[in-house]
Structures are given as C-alpha cells and as structure tokens.
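As a warm-up, study this chain.
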Amino acid sequence: MVRATGAGVGGESGPGGGVRPGAGRRRVVVGVSGSPGSLAALHRAAYEARRGGADLLAVLAWEPPGGTYGYRRAVCPLPLEDLRQDAGRRLLDALGSAFGPEGPEVSFQAVVVQGATGPALVESAAGEDDLLVVGAGGRGPLRRALFPSVARYCLAHADCPVLAVPPSPLVGDLAAVRRRIGLHLPLDARELTVGSR
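Now compare it with the structure written out below.
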C-alpha cells in the first residue's frame, strides 16, 4: 500500500510530514482518480473535514489492466509493484493538482488500494462516523451501460453517509470544446467567455 501522510503532499511511501491523522477521530473518505469530477469531490471532502474537525482519507483504487482475471491470463504481465507505484504517483499528482504544495490544510492520509473502486471505497469508509465523498460524474446512456457507477455502488452499499458531488458545469463546456477541436471545427475564444460574464 502506498501512503502519503501529513499536511502536504508527501512522498510515494512513508510519511510526508505534518500532522498525522488521529486514531479514533471522525474521517472523511474520498475517492480520487485524477478526473475533474474526483478533484471536485476532493475539494468538497477537504471542506467537510475542515468544517467537522475530521481527518481526510484520500483513496485511489486500482486494478491491473484487464482486471485480476485478465492479468492472471496475460502472457507477459507488468509487475504488480510497478502498477502499484504508478497508482501512487497518480494519487500524489491528483493531490498536488487539487491543493498545490500547501496541501488541504487538514490532517490527511493518502492511500492506494488494489481492487474495484466501489468496493474499495465502501471498505475504506467502514466506520459509522465516517463520511464518504464521491464524484457523481456526468454519465450518458452508453457510459452507463458499459461502466458501472461508483457513486451508485457506494450509495447502495456504504454503512456511512455518502455525499455525491455533481460535476462542475465547466466539465460539459470543456467536453464541448474538445469535441469541436476533434472535429476540426472553428473555435472562437470569445465563445468561451460569453457564459462567464
């Protein structure tokens, strides 16, 4: 398990300095993937932890390419330790993107867990006093059919309160810009600022 503990973004293994989360204290557990939705959830989780005097636990769940079954059947699989370290780097990058070098200004712990995201988050937030924060994410019909919703899984299986953070309206605007660029359609920068006035 890769952990970064402290008030700032720590190294890939071991403490990163700062205040260590207290044993027996209330926790706010948040799922982190590095997506814009998970960064919004991370900010909301840090706010909830500061407001309630709780510790923040940032969890990134990962699975080998193709899942556990596919990994076992692979001819030349990547070493699990390399995949675990890559997940740890992604988690630290997400924390750095969200909070910068100052960190979330609350005692926190960052943990990498091998397994499916929904079950890993529910297991991490097993305490009755915990609060589980997840990004709800925008989901079209095709995405819903192909990928199970982590937020729905957590709402159905968690023993603690779950806060699903809706995506920022800017995520939709960004997706529209990416589509226009991908289709080689003209893009006027003035269109991007019309809604922000």
